[in-house]
Amino acid sequence: MRAPSNQAKTYVGARLCLAVGLLTLPIAARPENSKPPQDPPAAPASGPQVELRGVEDTMQASQEQRRKLEAEIETMRADRARLNAALIETTGNVQATETKIVEVEKRLDTLTGSEDAIRRSLESRRDVIAEVLAALQRMGRKPPPAVLVRPNDMLEAVRTSMLLGAVVPELRAETEALATDLGELVRLRQAIIADRTMLQANLGTLAAERQRLAALVEARQGSLASAEKALDVERQRAADLARQAASLKELIARMESESSPAARAAEEARKAEAAQRHAAEAESDDVKARIAAAPFKDPARLAPQIAFVDTKGLLPLPAAGTLLKAFGDPDAFGGSERGLSLATRPSAIVSSPTDGWVVFAGPYRTYGELLIINAGGGYYVVLAGMDRINVDVGQFVLVGEPVAAMGDGTAKTAAAIAIGSAGPILYVEFRKDGAAIDPGPWWAKADMEKVRG
């Protein structure tokens, strides 16, 4: 008869040695500072010359890409429909990429948090692991006696067997738990590296799409700004009215009565509404069904195809981000929210959520950069908190067309201060006949699910 110690010691000792070895990895090797493994670079033939050649090649490739882009846009400049289609498509690509980036960043936050929790758990068990290893080493130096060889040590063998019988199962359970945690730590590291690689790829795609979008916006506004001096006068007029207006309702009313472009926009909205009523009376049910099924399909349209009230459940959110406040939620002043607030990435692109005419574009009180779109039928869409607006008063914009860009969150708006957010906040409000209404029924369901996470 032998004391049951050798196999158990070997199993426990081997697994604990593996655990301690992995636990003692330097903290500096944590994955948030790591990058995907790359092939070692080849030895340079002549350092500065090779670097200079690489810079020249990069500049040449960038210039070539820019020339191709300019040539492509020049062919679109005279074709409004093609230009609008390219603007909407590129804006959609940018916002889809921004959505992917937001999702990856959220996943990385979760993975990093899980990794930190496992590391803290393993760190807290260092003393226990050291004590167990020390005990195993002592047992290795003085193993329990073999009864057949030393029959006089029967009592010591029995005591050792009883001790091992009590301790080894506990050690085995501890090492199993350690092995599981270490396996999960390795999996998390691999997932973090994969997500960081994906994030870098998405950021590269985003940069290229933004370059294209900037060129398209420049082409669109260039074709509209034939009378730049008149535009400057109207911008100054809008700024003066914004300083005088005490509320959004008053601002809209004064712009449409005292600003020529805004007045023309309001008149166009009324004409479009009347045309929609006449068309609804004259058109067949088949035509009405086709228009209702694809109200935003024609990029050359100069007025909304259907009434704003009929676009419920169809409108896209104006930016990719996370919903922080919805209509009716408690605000920071004891009341309730009159719109919704989206946390966006810095420099996120803001698109028009509706067809309509711009009646105000510029800074207004604590709203930051404010954009008001007349959607017809007495409905207005208010967008606030942007850093830069790239449309002008009187301009007709399409659903999905880029109208503004967010900042980096350093310029605090009323919405950002009320929420206490450190990043940029886009505020969206729908108004009907001067009063704020719930925009919820108008948003496409898929978009709302994305921003709710």
Q: What's the Cα radius of gyration? A: 33 Å
CATH topology tier name of the largest domain: Glucose Permease (Domain IIA)
| The named CATH superfamily of the largest domain | Glucose Permease (Domain IIA)
The CATH architecture of the largest domain comes to Distorted Sandwich
User: Which strand-content bin applies to the residues?
Assistant: 5-15%
How far from one another are the termini?
64 Å
Q: Could you say which overall geometry the principal axes of the C-alpha atoms support? A: elongated
Helical segment count: 11
Q: Structural class of the helices, strands and pairings?
A: alpha+beta
Could you estimate the helical fraction of the residues in percent?
55-70%
Report on the biggest sheet.
8 strands, antiparallel
How many DSSP-defined strands?
A: 11
Query: How many structural domains are formed by the residues?
Result: 2
The succession of helices and strands, N to C, reads: HHHHHHHHHEEEEEEEEEHEEH
Average pLDDT over all residues: 77
Which CATH class of the largest domain? Mainly Beta
Are there runs of 5+ residues with pLDDT below 50, and where?
Answer: 1-12, 18-48
